[in-house]
């Protein structure tokens, strides 16, 4: 596999879980995430090969819909500015493949219908969190398992409530099974 010098940008990558399979085999992975980087001011390098983007879902996810009215337009604008920055970086970079993910919610109204939906259990991680993917990429091959249900709403990820930054970060880690399947289909 020829990976030398192929640049992968992991925008809003947090822990870097999505791009980890690329990093492990020697791609030049750059995790562009807060607090070190802000995608809104980031200028991408030349010759970017692939882009993964996981902008914050706080102001889009259906699970937070009951707060949309109280949060108001400024929060929505803040969320959209990060999504827009990811799309701008994709636009100027013209990568071979790109994908932007977000949990099911109102981002669909702004980006149109996603290319695909998935749950982590479709790729071997036994929980549900319905997630949308937009972009231009090869479809990852599924390897479904039964989700483990621990509460009325479904899997442990929904049960892991709380607004602390640490809890939110844990909830938003890209499931490794999906990351691996995506990598295998897009190299
Ligand atoms: C939905 S989480 C993605 C987490 C990631 N999937 C993972 O596996 O850790 C969004 C991430 O984007 C970061 N972030 C928020 N605003 C950002 C910005 N303007 N520029 C870059 N990163 C940002 C957050 O700190 C958070 O780590």
Compact overview of the structure:
The chain is α/β, with parallel strands linked by helices and 187 residues long. It has helices spanning 20-24, 68-93, 107-111, 156-159, 165-171, 176-185; strands at 7-11, 28-32, 48-53, 97-103, 116-118, 131-136, 149-151, 154-155.
Can you characterise this structure?
With 187 residues, the protein is of the alpha/beta class. Helix content is 30%, strand content 20%. It is built from six helices and eight strands, in the order βαββαβαββββααα. The chain has helices spanning 20-24, 68-93, 107-111, 156-159, 165-171, 176-185; strands spanning 7-11, 28-32, 48-53, 97-103, 116-118, 131-136, 149-151, 154-155. Strands 2-1-3-4-6-5 form a six-stranded mixed sheet. A two-stranded antiparallel sheet has the order 7-8. Strand 3 (48-53), helix 2 (68-93) and strand 4 (97-103) form a beta-alpha-beta unit. The radius of gyration is 16 Å and the shape is globular. The protein starts with 6 loop residues before the first strand and ends with a helix. The model has no long low-confidence stretch (mean pLDDT 91). Residues 12-15, 17-18, 33-34, 37-40, 54, 56-57, 82, 172-174 line the site of S-adenosylmethionine.
